[in-house]
Amino acid sequence: MPLAGIALAPLLVSPLAPPSPRGSAAAVSAEPARRRRALRRVRCSAAAASGGGELSRATLLWRAAKLPIYSVALVPLTVGTAAAYNHAGLFFARRYFGLLAAAVLVITWLNLSNDVYDSDTGADKNKKESVVNIVGSRAVTEYAANVSLLLGFGGLFWAFAEAGDVRFIVLVLCAILCGYVYQCPPFRLSYRGLGEPLCFAAFGPLATSAFYFSNSSRSISSGTVLLPLSKTVIASSILVGLTTTLILFCSHFHQIEGDRAVGKMSPLVRIGTKTGATLVTVAIGALYTLLAAFGISRCLPPSCIVLGALTLPLGKWVVDYVQRNHDDDTKIFMAKYYCVRLHALLGMALASGLVLARNGVLA
Fold first, then answer.
1. 59-359 in CATH: which number?
2. What InterPro entries does its record include (predicted)?
């Protein structure tokens, strides 16, 4: 991490170093220069680690793969499935893992097609970890994106056939449509600053509720048993949507100049990083206020509130980090990954709390 090099800086300029052979006076006069050079080397190393210098191919591939971002496939599915289990004691393992694979494929399409269309507008011209730039072919990247989407659709329609609940397939298709109009021509609504509302809707109320309905059951003897829409899944989906949107919002901090140059008017281009950092603070505060309110109103069981409260230190870490580094492109790059951790841990807290409540623990 970039901060690791900075933390080691005092060791590189230790005052216990042996004096120069030219004498103590020369050593004293040379010491500030050596200290400045050492600090410059540390800053350069930190900048390179954060994307300011040349990156290894392995690092570029890791960033291009965006593996931590796939939590946005895992969390809505797991929370929606846990809400179904909490309500009716239903869990279909084969369907869960089939949907996980389908969701990962759809997110792969989302990431790859985003790189394709950003390359068309020039937004990713200097983005080294763009898949199009790494592969060197827009056509190959677009083909891989479309294949991923088709395979993902196959998994989703299989789950629909298993569940027999039309609400599932309608909601999940609406979520995918949000992803399409977010980035694909002729819409490209992300360029109009509408990416965050679309992200909230797609991964929150639409996807989380869809995965909840995917646990409806169809059998020869009893027909299709449909799950009712519950306040629990609505509350859970709002929290999932908020943390997902935080990831997208914080991913724009270090891209403001590039976005502005191609006319991509993200919220941070419009309001600036200082106001953006304040907005992150407000969003985190709203997240935990809603968590408490959902507990008080019994929309969520106490187990969800207790486990969710354990993520408060991470929420504070996100706020403090963004407030300190909002105007430092080499450091703020990491903010989205801290938001991914918050998203994943709060999602797991909600899912675990729902399962525990069903089994009489902190119900």
1. 1.10.600
2. DHNA_phytyltransferase_MenA (IPR011937), UbiA_prenyltransferase (IPR000537), UBIAD1 (IPR026046)
d(CA 103, CA 244): 15
User: pLDDT by residue (tens digit) across 232-272?
Assistant: 999 999 999 999 999 999 998 988 888 888 888 889 999 99
DSSP 260-319: HHTT---HHHHHHHHHHHHHHHHHHHHHHHHHHHHHHTTSS-HHHHHHHHTTHHHHHHHH
Tokens of 33: 């220069």
How many angstroms separate the CA atoms of 54 and 153, rounded? 38
d(CA 334, CA 345): 17
- Cα distances (Å, whole numbers) of residue 114 to 13, 69, 319: 45, 14, 27
The first and second tokens of residue 265, run together, are 């008017």
- Which tokens sit at 4? 């690791």
For 150-206, write each residue's pLDDT tens digit: 999 999 999 999 888 999 999 999 999 999 999 888 888 988 989 999 999 999 999
Q: Where are the alpha helices (DSSP H) in 13-92?
A: 24-50, 57-65, 71-88
Is there a contact between 333 and 254 (Cβ–Cβ < 8 Å)? yes
